[in-house]
Hints:
Phosphorylase Kinase, domain 1, 13 helices, Transferase(Phosphotransferase), domain 1, 677 residues, Jelly Rolls
Amino acid sequence: xxxxxxILLLLCSNSTLLxxxxxEEDLGFTYNGFxxxxxxxxxVAQFTPNGLLMLTNHTEQQxxxxxxxxxxxxxxSSNTTxxxxxxxxxxxxxxxxxLGSGPGIAFVIAPTRxxxxxxxxxxxxxxxxxxxxxxxxxxxxxxLDTIESKEFNDINxxxxxxxxxxxxxxVAKPAGYYDPNKGRFHNLTLISGHPxxxxxxxxxxxxxxxxTLAPVHVQKPNxxxxxxxxxxxxxxxxxxxxGFSASTAAxxxxxxxxxxxxxxxxxxxxxxxxxxxxxxxxxxxxTSRVLTIGLPVICxxxxxxxxxxxxxxxxxxxxxxxxxxxxxxxxxxxxxxYKDLYIATNGFRDKELLGSxxxxxxxxxxxxxxxxxxxxxxxSQESRQGMKExxxxxxSIGRLRHRNIVQLLGYCRRKGELLLVYDYMPNGSLDKFLYxxxxxxxxxxxxxxxxxxxxxxxxxxxxxxEQVVVHRDIKASNVLLDGEFNGRLGDFGLARLYRHGxxxxxxxxxxxxxxxxxxxxxxxxxxxxxxxYAFGAxxxxxxxxxxxxxxxxxxxxxxxxxWVFGCWSGGDILRAVDVNxxxxxxxxxxxxxxxxxxxxxxxxxxARPTMRQVVQHLEGDIPLPELSxxxxxxxxxxxxxxxxxxxxxxxxxxxxxxxxxxTTPPSVAESLLxxxx
Length: 677
């Protein structure tokens, strides 16, 4: 009896030791799915019935955390170096709209089990505005980021980064992998909905961390995506917790972990991919072959029902008819159904109309299921010539991700029109707050924030995205304001894309009169420099509260650039500031914006700054040079602004039979589907 009791006590003792195994230096665990996993969950994180770890559950502005429940020894004492460790996991990100998601997943090493205070959206559920970047966080993270955020200096909208105590990644690269056989680099889209595997290996002796990424059925590449030499001993405490964090923004997104393996002082055990749970199906279920073969028989049985419903069906089909050609199959995920847009906008009723312009009418809509607000632009087009290339560009532009750019969610084609779907901006366009005696005007702080935001977005288009994007129609009416009055550059109907290092081939003049650079009116070539010129006119427009061309003004004040120049040459440039601002502005900031507007509007393209330099000037990183150094003097002749003005004024007068001063400044933007693209 005593011997049996002794054995029972030993077994209980061993069970206790197993429960405390997380504190051993050689701890290891492997989850091939999470059917019976013991993890600490908070936020919206949960386990699905088939064993997926779902960190976010298709809701807005939410966070989800999942941590191994026991503390892990990362070093012997607070003064010693961190042990080596290795982990691998398989993840997948499925967004409601393939052109939008947010914001991503992070593997986290933290001093607490969970991340109290971690915010959603761009903070990934790990940090918040107060503690981001604080050394007291003691957090090491590997982020899989799908949203661009200039606030955190991220490099692009689809990247992997290593973070130390904050979201300003110490090292980051676009998502992708090096072919294990040929060594060639392949890009990956984190929000593709397809499972991918990540390996994180830290060498405690040589003090470097490798991060490797690959599709789930590709063996681990020999060359890591990131290799970062850094001693994390000063960041990591003696005991830490390991786990995952994810968050959502405005676009409903599911973040999944399919399997996870971790090992201290050794290589993490490989995951058994055959045991990993299946992801939810994306898109409609494929029709079975049996049903396809048996369909004629079924049709015979149902022929009477079909005949009786033919009239109703034909009418309904005409109501929701769309165009879908073979070449569009590749863009399937980016298409919206016309029926869904029709219902979202209440049948495109006038009460949902947000505005209209040369390219069509814009309606407000609400997606019924998700309740997401959208803006739908109905673009008329007379010819289908070039439609394939145009839709390819629409889909490409839809991949732009920046907090100061209105996101294009997708498109739909029906009969003779194209429908473009955008994020809804509740405060409308900037111009309505500048002109025509609005109910209230924006104060200087709001205007300056809008200016810096649009500059940041334009810099992203010119230099930070995978292609060069020339917007070609920068103006106040194309800058939209979100719920917090942040400026977002929109309306990419005239935008052109080309590879970095190449020269654009467009030779047709498009844009809006008053924002066109002199060389654009002569050659028709739109470049990043012509965008800078238009941005210069935009700077003066916002600071002065006046349009670039004001036909009803006195002759000497018709052209805004010349008027501001006259104020500067007269020694009182602040005389040009919008009278609606009164004296409630920062003179140094206003003077900077006005002078920068003149510099961007220089008649010589080589004298204009790049958008990178513009952002640096606005942020105060580099001082603005004296205007006189660029040939801008009291004569004003170096601007050459009248050159472009005279050419268009003469042309416009001859075509209308009226002098320009009797008309509203024309828009020379052609139809969205014309040869101007």
